[in-house]
Amino acid sequence: xTKEDIYRMAQEAGFMTLCINEDTxxxxxxxxxxxxxxxxREECAKAVANISGGKWAALAIRERGAP
Length: 67
Fold this sequence. Notes:
This protein has helices at 3-13, 22-49, 54-63.
């Protein structure tokens, strides 16, 4: 997810009306977005883990968040 993606989504969610200085809140919002994405990946991995062959799919989903 790029800074531009986060900025666009923040605008869609109405954050732009709450914040005055982008440089102040973008790092926090970026970190929040990363936490949400990690939680979503983990839920997806859990959902496929018990399906036949799902252990490999779960591993691949979890690896998407690896640096």
